[in-house]
Design brief:
Helix content is 43%, strand content 20%. The chain has helices spanning 32-36, 43-64, 84-101, 110-116, 167-177, 184-192, 217-229, 237-266, 281-294, 303-306, 310-322, and strands spanning 2-7, 12-19, 22-30, 74-80, 105-109, 120-121, 126-127, 135-140, 145-152, 155-160, 270-274, 297-300.
Length: 341
Amino acid sequence: MRLLAIETSCDETSAAVVCDGAVLSNVVFSQIKLHAEYGGVVPELATREHLRNLLPVARAALSEADLRVDQIDAVAATQGPGLPAALMIGFKVAQSFAFALRKPFLGVNHHEAHLYSPWITGTPPRAGFAVFEPNISLIVSGGHTMLVHVEGELKHRVLGGTIDDAAGECFDKVAKLIGLPYPGGPELDKLAAQGNPRAFDFPRPLLNEANDDFSFSGLKTSVRYFLRDHPHLLADAQGLRDLCASTQAAIVQVLVTKTMRAAKRLGVRCVTASGGVTCNSGLRSELAAACAKHGFTLRLAEKSLCTDNAAMIGILAERKLLAGHGPAGSDAEVNVGWALA
């Protein structure tokens, strides 16, 4: 099966071609520079850029895979969750493409695709479902933080999620408070690497609660008041590094502790992590250390597959179609708030 996948849920325009579990191409056009001026994603601008870039990106993906349009056997696109108008661009273009070619079309849940991105490895990338095993999956991004028990291939159960601010949102908002350029999360990570994570003691929300939910709004507020009371830190280079390191340590401790606790409680021996915040060096390091300590296998999504990309959409769509999941009808619509069940 040669499948063309499209992803436009937020501010990355992406198209990929997958074939029998292998990623033949994965082209991503990022809009970071465009949105940097505004300090965050502007939905109207993101939509306009998807309109402008989607067809060139899709053509590039087909060219890189050395395939003609008429050689595509199926088409897939992100159906939700995401920004309404941005989702609409990719979904409707892919849907129309499939209809014109009279090929199957499948809408994919963006978060469900993240669950399988840690299993896409190698050069060229290939889905390693032959060695798939039950796992606790941490999905952590700018808009969502959740723990999922993946009991088997295409079988999962959400354990807990974001009550208010997601981890990525907390990273970005703290970075904005201290004047770091957009996107702030990666910049905060760079400074944190040179700071003392024990310099300042920030709260670890819900760390000791007997649930799998996450809340980071209180931590963000704590940093805001801390800066109000210690404004001199903004002009102190090392103090700023220590602040970043201390904030990151608080977020990472919550993420890692809750993930390990869920894995031990449910008796799984594998932990996976995906989503944009999984690029954070502190999180990757602490997850690796914790899994080594408890004897868990750790699978982290490749950094190129942590952020929004069509490869993971295509891999999941292919598995679903091969497993007998029916294609979507030509009247299917985007599902902006499509929660992972």
